[in-house]
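A common beginner's mistake is to predict each chain separately and then try to dock the pieces by hand. The better habit, illustrated here, is to supply every component at once so that their relative placement is modeled jointly.
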Amino acid sequence: MNAEIIAVGSELLLGQITNSNARFISSQLAEIGINVYYHTVVGDNPNRLLDAITIAENRSDLIIFSGGLGPTKDDLTKETIAKHLHIELEEDKDAMKSIVEFFQNQNKPMTENNRKQALVLRGSHVLANKNGMAPGMMYTASNHTYILLPGPPKEIEPMFQFEAKPLLTSLVSKGQIVSHVLRFYGIGEAELEDKLQHLLENQTNPTLAPLASDGEVTIRITANADTTEEAWKKIRVAKEEILHIAGDYFYGVDDDSISSVLTKMLMKNELTIAAAESLTAGLFQAELANNPGVGEALLGGMVTYNEQVKINQLGMEKEVIEQHGVVSSECASEMARLVKEKFGSTIGVGLTGAAGPQAHGNKPAGTVWIGIAIGDEPPHTYRLQLSGSRNTNRLRATKSAFYRLIQLLIEKGYERA
Amino acid sequence: MNAEIIAVGSELLLGQITNSNARFISSQLAEIGINVYYHTVVGDNPNRLLDAITIAENRSDLIIFSGGLGPTKDDLTKETIAKHLHIELEEDKDAMKSIVEFFQNQNKPMTENNRKQALVLRGSHVLANKNGMAPGMMYTASNHTYILLPGPPKEIEPMFQFEAKPLLTSLVSKGQIVSHVLRFYGIGEAELEDKLQHLLENQTNPTLAPLASDGEVTIRITANADTTEEAWKKIRVAKEEILHIAGDYFYGVDDDSISSVLTKMLMKNELTIAAAESLTAGLFQAELANNPGVGEALLGGMVTYNEQVKINQLGMEKEVIEQHGVVSSECASEMARLVKEKFGSTIGVGLTGAAGPQAHGNKPAGTVWIGIAIGDEPPHTYRLQLSGSRNTNRLRATKSAFYRLIQLLIEKGYERA
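With all components supplied together, the output reads:
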């Protein structure tokens, strides 16, 4: 089965947004062994959309549409397909019910154009939208399968994963395909590929696909076998070989993030944490708080953006700043120690540095100091020299602090989650 | 002139990377008034690439390729085009020279396959690559213009902007095209379109293109005229009409973000700010700190994730929490007032709520209270009832706080930035 993904929306052709939906759906299809041969993007224009559909029907079995299911007049994907396939649109009761409820919850009047969102292709399998109003559809006719999905990523991603993908998997079920992602931090993609070269070259089942993004590197292991158990067996063998070589940089699997791994570890070991943040200005704590249940571990902390705040609120001695400056090992160390004491947590983290674009005195942009205090020991400090933009540097500093803390906890014998 | 962008690379079809090049080139073409009607993505396969070229020639005047110019066997864009157009490839001396220099600078031996990168279509205009090895090309034949560009964003972006775009601009110079984006918050896309329906329907020059993302709505106004001044005149008229109807929700233009507008406004009016955050856990301060120079206004603040921290660190009376709970107007109001006092800022902001997925006692997930204290007046509070995921809710709460504060400052007569 060969697939084509058609994204509909003039905003894509104007360069206002990136076609991230095609990437997401492609990676999902790769997991279940469906080849994607083409992506197409076409604007909110019924004639050009019709042309794109005709071309796709000539070269692809499965045609997946994203976008154009919304309430406005520009949204014309299902109307165009209905006309092309000579089928009617009809109101889906469940979809209509959830649209009405959506407006009731928001305490807003429902405008008439929203009714249009509940229309579906007659005879299609309706895909529920748990994160928005427009339902999706799957329709099969004369050797082609058409899947219609909404445009917003937060709607299309869960809908594809939980509604469409299981249907497609059962369509193509020729053996079982299992994927497992290993996540690494603190090592570049080229360096990791270099270390694993002999594995990357010789593997066909499972396949190993490395990918770098946001300062992290992942390796996706995909195995194919008659049963899920056998596929997992293949994955475990490959995983063991990889971790034997690059285990030092390994932090988690699949949908883990560095902050979720740290959160689980804090909770498992009943540790509490507080942070004092300068350049990251709350990002460390905000990222930790992405993880539900983190309230057991994260007590809170301070944003000490201003020098006086470090002295008056956190209680730092003026001399530390005068002697070493705020971008220094000593300052990071004191921030970690003081915030731990003040908040009564088991762990204190301090983050200070020059995010950029300006240098901070004689400290160039991208200089970061991380302090970590655990229990009564003298705090540990780490220096980073980053070369990204202001906000990349702030995010890297945050992730590095998570990573350093995880490594430190492992060294001290705390259990991994 | 109508354009199509063909990105070549199997990694795009596997979902390993996003087609950000198409977005970049599209936004650049929009600026010079070239309509993009299609994006296509095709893998490293010469037959399918050839099919894609033939389809593009039937519907587009300008065909821009990204990717497939590198040294490996998979890189076949220029070979396929040369064969299709019956033209030879020849070595470009300048390109060869810079490839040799590249390896010398890196102190590495040049492998033979790198010679392939210096080959260009005979008769093409060669586009220099200042950030990599493979040169780009522009070639015109029988009513079509073909532009070949490398795949890596750091190579294609400067090459397009500084080499290809000036050539295209001189090709299309028929009047001036100017775009201007208006940004709105606190109103849905459907509701805004409803309000502006008569304008959206009747406008052809300028055109109005609404777009929703991340809880915001933008309207791009694009005008075409003989001179830039006349184009701007058309834009100003449309802008005035739009703001007359929907001005209450307007917060900024072009590349503004809500936090950048607020930051500029704080700096212009010499106001200082501190925040106490529960559900957002530092996100409000971290988002403000995205903006360079914010240190003049943002003193810092506290993350009071834990109830005891609100009492012990921020100094809240235990009775406030016992009587009203932490998800309450009273608690948000006290957080705003106390953090303002503690940090000695002119403005204090308090954020508390149930981010989800769990409710907080009898307060359903998505209930948020924002408190804003300015000067000595009693704090203002605002309630939100959000329906997104945990992290969408936290981001919406943060943006709403920015928006409410901007509105409040305008009401109080502070100057917009």
